[in-house]
Amino acid sequence: MKLTHTKAVFMMVAVTLMWSVAGVVTRHLQNAHSFEVTFWRSFFTMVSLLVILPAWQGRGVFRAMQWTSPAFWISGVCWSVMFTAYMVALTLTSVGNVLVTMSIGPLLTALLARVFIGHRIAPRTWGAIALAGLGIAYMFGSQVNVAAGNDGALLGSLVALCVPMAAAVNWTVVQRSQAHGEKIDLVPSLLVGAVLSTLLTLPLAYPFVATGPDLRLLAFLGLVQLAIPCIFSVISARVLKAPEVALLALLEVIFGILWAWLGANEVPSAEVLIGGALVIGALVGNEVLGWRSRVRQRCGPTPVAIRPSSLE
Q1: For residues 49 and 224, is the Cβ–Cβ distance under 8 A?
Q2: Which PANTHER family does this one have (predicted)?
Q3: pLDDT at 310 (0 to 100)
Q4: 3-class state of residue 80 by DSSP
Q5: For the chain, which has fewer Cβ within 10 Å, the N-terminal or C-terminal residue?
Q6: DSSP class of residue 180?
């Protein structure tokens, strides 16, 4: 699937929209909680990928997987960490604390891409990363202060830190493999991540208490909230730079707040609205400036009119 830069941006926006439904969906679960939610979500993601991958890439997709490629396994482990660490962190500290910790993802991604790939980070992207990080921190700063006195808050933050770290490594691995001309399809590594997350959380999820409606909602999460958008995110990362992918991924926070507002009657505070405006402004500004830069490069330098000298 070949994408232009603009189409890749819109695809990542759609990805964050699908990622963001997890919060509002889990509000409607009856009995399932914590590790059981993580287990069933990863399990249904694994089942979905076992169906989607051969239907999309043919029955030989599993034989064609790059089982000997380090990049393939690194990406799979990163997906497993991201699938698992977020839910574990939520069991230890507040949602706000987790999200503030995750907001450093774009900065980590930019630094890794600069060190290991040699990407030049445009000043506009650095500015957007800083502004978006401030917006996320402002939205949930009060919640972090409440959790500061909790002994579990530090451990929860350290677990949450695994999510942006794994994401930064994952996007960097994807782009490094592309930059070095390696013909490696990292989309199947999603399956490795789902399998690892399922196996890791299985002992912690027992005994199962999920009801039939719970399982239907968790199956929806496995397919629509993880399997499909994660495939699209890998495809987008073939076109977008790693820091840009991470920056766009922050939209998940904004969409998640809107879903909770519309679907669970959780009205956002003024701090959330102001912080969300900063995040969206940073993303829009970064994309608009990038689009103008690409237009100028395609059109070339503006010709300068030569006026005749007054002495002629």
Answers
A1: no
A2: ACYL-MALONYL CONDENSING ENZYME-RELATED (PTHR22911), BLR4310 PROTEIN (PTHR22911:SF135)
A3: 38
A4: helix
A5: C
A6: T
Q: Is 43 left (phi over 0), alpha (psi -120 to 50) or beta?
A: alpha
**Is residue 310 one of the residues assigned to a domain?**
no
**Which distant-in-sequence residues (6+ apart) come within 8 Å of 81 by Cβ?**
162, 163, 165, 166
- For residue 299, being part of any structural domain is answered with no
- The per-residue pLDDT for range 189-236, each reduced to its tens digit, is 889 999 999 999 999 998 899 999 999 999 999 999 999 998 898 888
| H-type alpha helices, 91-188 | 95-102, 105-112, 123-147, 151-179
Q: Is residue 176 a contact partner of residue 113, using CB atoms and an 8 Å limit?
A: no
Tokens at 206, concatenated: 């027992």
Give the residue numbers spanning the domain of 205: 5-293
| Tokens read off for 170 | 């994952």
Number of domains forming the structure of the chain: 1
Which is nearest to 15 in space by CA: 303, 270, 199, 248? 248
SS3 128: helix
The closest alpha carbon to 265, from 53, 57, 28, 4, belongs to: 28
Comparing CA positions, the residue from 32, 11, 47, 22 lying closest to residue 98 is 22
**Rounded to an integer, what distance in angstroms lies between the CA atom of residue 147 and that of residue 126?**
29
Q: What are phi and psi of 188, to 5 degrees?
A: -60, -20
CB 254 within 8 A of CB 279: yes
Identify the segments of the chain with pLDDT beneath 70: 1, 90-91, 93-97, 99-100, 140-154, 178-184, 300-312
Rounded to whole angstroms, the Cα distance separating 248 from 280 reads: 9
Please report the pLDDT score of residue 303 as a whole number. 52
Q: Is residue 31 part of a domain?
A: yes
